[in-house]
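hi!! sorry for the late reply, been swamped w classes. u asked for the two structures so here they r. pasted raw, havent cleaned anything up. first the sequence of the first protein and right below it the tokens
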Amino acid sequence: MIRWTLPLLFCLSLAPARAQDTSDPPTPKDDGPSLMERGADMFLRGLMDEMDPALRGMEDALREMEPELRQLIDMIGDLRNYEPPEKLPNGDIIIRRKPVPPAPLKDGEIEL
């Protein structure tokens, strides 16, 4: 058996060494969305199905409140005319109107 080992090793050493195959593995064909995309799609569809009745109810409530909301918007005007809300120690919340800037003087004069 030892007689065959040495010639076998000699023959194997003379055989050309094969390099590793460096070509890219074949990429799978794009057969549509991936598993993650399908899972996200299913999750979002389920969420939409659950939220749909609540959103429809909110839409109906806002349609009922629309005249009052328009009246409130007309009363308030521009929100930039108001300071941020403040909470008082007794729990009241007040929203103060910003002071009106003084009118400019005639002919571009400046009061010192």
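now the second protein. again sequence first, tokens right under
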Amino acid sequence: MPQRNSIKTYVKNGIYHVYNRGVEKRTIFEDEQDYKVFLKYLKEYLTPPPDPSKLLTTFTLQGASFQGIPHQHKNYHETINLLAHSLMPNHFHFILRQKTDRSMEFFLRSLATRYSMFFNKKYNRIGKLFQGHYKAILIDNERYLLYLSKYIHKNPKEYTDMLTDAYSSYSEYLDLRHTSWIETETILSYFKEQKNSLLKKTNSYKSFVEDEDETETALLGNLIIEK
């Protein structure tokens, strides 16, 4: 029987909740460097690729000099928008939009493979790092999208006293940090007066996230990852 949310519905311009955790619930981020490497990979995938002409490198082989461009990883700047993310010691959450039918699949497969190779080399281990394929839920409800972003940004609270110190996009949503490859406008637009009918008279994203609200649990139900 397939795992819950392991069968994907791929839709062009669809917005998805994507998540995965370590195999056997193991830790996938052991230290600060691990978090930073994972975020570095996200940045490389989601920012415009460099001009190839600026990457020309001269190298020497058997006494002869050659010019070439070093291997470049795939780039998803034009096909993936990352709306929100949160990284915890043994799992991660994304909200993303894929602009083509299968770009999410290729992006997540490449990210997981690349990070697993880094992690296994660093810690001298072999085997799978993640618990099977990523899980994905197509988000077709605006209210669900908003409360999912709240859940994702609150998720690290058991690991840190300040949510803004977490490895998440929460600081971008509070305008405390600018990161070009995180697209906040889709969600923050609902906190403008003209779209506020979906919320309980809340114009502040910070108060929306940090205030207790039973709607979150009732709305998201069993779609939340089990830690």
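hope this helps!! also noticed smth abt the second:
Residues 103-122 form the longest helix (20 residues).
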